[in-house]
Amino acid sequence: MRCRFNRSRRRLYWSLLAVAPMMSGEGQAQESQELPAVVVSATTTERKLRDAPATVTVVTRDQLSRRPVQDLSDALRGTPGITIGGIGLNRRGISIRGMPSEHTLILVDGKRVNTAGSAIAHADYDLNWIPVEAIERIEVVRGPMSSLYGSEALGGVINVITRRATDAWHGGFSGTGGLQQRRGGDTYQFGGYAGGPLVPGRLALSLYGEASGRQLAPDPTEPRRSELEKRDSAAGKAVLTWTPDQAQRIDLSYGYGVDRRLYKLLSEGPAPSFYKTTDDVERQQFSLTHQGDWGWGSSTLRAYRSTLYRESRRSQGTPSGPHRLTDDIVDGHLTFGAFGFNRITLGGEWREERLKDSTVNRRGRAQATHQALFLQDEITLGADWSLVIGNRLDHHDAFGWQNSPRAYLVHHWNDALTFRVGVGRGFKAPTLKQLSPEYRAVAAAGRFTIVGNPDLRPEINTSYEFGADYQAASWSLRATVFQNDLKNLIQTACVRFCGIRGREIRTYENVEKARIRGVEIAGGVALPWQLRLDANYTFLDTKNRTTGQELPERPRHSGNVTLGWTPREGTTVQLRGDYVGRQIVYPTATGGRRLPGYTLWSIDLSHRLTDTVTMRAGVQNIANERLAEKSSLFTYAEPGRLYWVGLNYRF
Asked: Engineered SS bond to 59: which of 138, 266, 583, 639, CB 3.0-4.6 Å?
């Protein structure tokens, strides 16, 4: 199997090298990097950002280019309402407003990324498949979007919008390297994008790819154990676009990627020992999309297959897997106007989810079919009022039909002040493994065994929010209060031999009722001397209404601040601070412990050398914070002080 992955890696690297010559010739002036006038993730139709019927944050390509970004968690750090937390094995996941990371639906150009975390423990393989050079913007929608996207959008949606080919060839290449002050943890990243016409006005091609990695960083207190795993990944994609006429666009795409992880652990049980584990991951996606703009309305129809294969090896003991996840999806929607003040969207989705894994049941395979219909009406109530109402009906093999309604009202008080209020309901079905009565697997390096529970019920979230947004000439301020009322939240619980390492048995159970409420505040102001200050703060108040306890691993306070300085055109310096407040964990069934808060400071420098070449440099985690020194109960690690330098070329 190792030969297979080596061949796959060589094939992808040669593909990347083939793209590079397109990026090395004489170029044009650097493309402008402006905040997009429209977003699409909140309604599937184009809406101005200030009109969006949801709390939406847009991360632009220009913002991403100013700092090192190895994966989606790096790209979204500092975004209001986003928490980058642990999912085990010192890996990180993305939580929106305190909801579990598996409640965050990740899309690429509106298409689902098959969720590895639903089948593979501690999987963060969904976060690093899109090269930074290919990203046009990232739209983050906070709050349940199940009325449009279905089960996994219970907490929110992250939609990565990639660059599209235009009437002229454009592209770029970037390279970044980092040296960590502590032993190990050094990073590298090389990526590129090129897009343009093959037949002007008819046929266009987009190509992008990236290779990135990080060295293994040993635990300073025990070098035989990893603090940060070693990882090497490469991904690429080609998109062929045919426009037979002015009304139609057809995209045919193929994406491929490989990812190798290596980490060292100490096994649990009566005879603990150190061992090494390697994960090889391979991902592919085929996609065919038709878009039409017919004058009376628009349509989108997509068919795509996403596959993920993961094989694990261990220097001692029995590895988990192998795993193969396959999603076959056909979806589409039709949008048209009605009565002069309505814009109606009708849509549907068919998705077949298949899993091959020896632990899921005796057959070693399971599958589920999802079918859905949705209806949305965008109603213009006047020059300053708009209302969006919608509903989605999902059919699940185990739970029948599920209903996900949503209503959202937007009012522009004047040109600067906008009010938003909305309510939505979403659901998430348990995964194939969670529902399987035959599922049984050793987890957490042998510390406990996890088993399935066929009596689980779907998780339900009813969310309410009210917000105000003020945009002045030189400053802005946004505030949103929200509440998530959850039913049947799925968590693991000990059922036998609790606290006995190596013998403990856990299963999945529903928390009958839970509540997550909070406040988000974000703003920015232009200061004298070419300075600009941007900051945001999130407060969370969580409660398990069954036990009265606080929900674990959700910081009560978190915030981010960026002070930027532009002394001259083409030169920027920014100081970034990220604060994660205290949070509770429950290491045993008898009580919780409070993890301390921490702050990470970083500085980034970007200087344009020519119209096409920009040099970047900086320091991450200036104070060299190490979470393990604060508490051994942190489930993830932050990289130590990292000195980095990079170069961007645009044409």
From this structure: 138
**Strand ranges inside 267-382, DSSP E:** 274-293, 297-314, 323-338, 342-356, 365-380
Q: How far apart are the first and last CA of the chain?
A: 40
- Mean pLDDT score of the chain: 88
The Cα 353–Cα 501 span in angstroms is 34
Mean pLDDT of 602-614: 95
Spatial separation of the C-alpha atoms in residues 471 and 524, rounded to whole Å: 10
Assign 36 a pLDDT band (cuts: 50, 70, 90).
low
The residue behind tokens 């030169």 is 571
Contact 278, 260 (CB under 8 A): yes
Element (H, E) at 175: strand 170-180
Residues near 608 by Cβ (< 8 Å), separated by ≥ 6? 30, 569, 570, 571, 614
Tokens for 57? 């944050």
Q: Of 465, 554, 422, 461, nearest to 144 (Cα)? A: 461
Q: What is the pLDDT of residues 351-374, one digit of tens each?
A: 999 999 988 898 999 999 999 999
SS3 of residue 183 by DSSP: coil
Separation CA 61–CA 59 (nearest Å): 7
Residue 277 token pair: 């584990």
Count of all residues that appear for the chain in the document:
651
| Kind plus residue range of the DSSP H or E element containing 10 | helix 2-19
What does the alpha-carbon distance between residue 318 and residue 339 come to, in Å, rounded to a whole number?
64
Q: Is the model's pLDDT at 82 over the cut of 60?
A: yes
- Alpha-carbon distance of 357 to 549, in angstroms, equals 35
Q: How far is CA 427 from CA 3, 347, 422, 435, 545, in A?
A: 42, 18, 17, 16, 19
C-alpha angle 391/397/399, rounded to 5°? Answer: 60
403-424: pLDDT as tens digits: 999 999 999 999 999 999 999 9
In degrees and rounded to multiples of 5, residue 457 shows phi and psi of -110, 160
Q: Which helix (H) or strand (E) holds 23?
A: none
3-state secondary structure of 419: strand
**C-alpha angle 129-111-168 in degrees, rounded to nearest 5:** 75
Residue 534 · residue 571 · CB < 8 Å: no
- The owner of tokens 């993830």 is 636
Domain edges within the chain: 2-165+174-188+257-271+292-650
3-state class of 64 per DSSP?
Answer: helix
How far, in Å, CA of 102 to CA of 118, rounded?
A: 7
Enter the tokens of residue 111: 């298409």
Cα–Cα distance for residue pair 295/313, rounded to 1 Å: 56
Give residue 651's identity as a one-letter amino acid code: F
2's tokens: 């190792």
Q: Pick the closest to residue 37 from 14, 55, 60 (CA basis).
A: 60
pTM for this one?
0.90
305-330: b (≥16 Cβ within 10 Å) or e: ebbbbbbbeeeeeeebbebbbbbebe
Nearest CA to 418 out of 378, 471, 456, 354 is that of 471
> Based on the number of CB atoms within 10 Å of its own CB, is 237 exposed (0-12), middle (13-18) or buried (19 or more)?
buried
Q: What is the DSSP letter of 132?
A: G
| Fold for the domain defined by 2-165+174-188+257-271+292-650 | Maltoporin; Chain A (2.40.170)
Q: Which two tokens stand for residue 13?
A: 């690297």
DSSP string, 213-269: EE--EEETTEEEEEEE-EEEEEEEEEEEEE-SSTTEEEEEEEEEEEEEEEEEEE--S
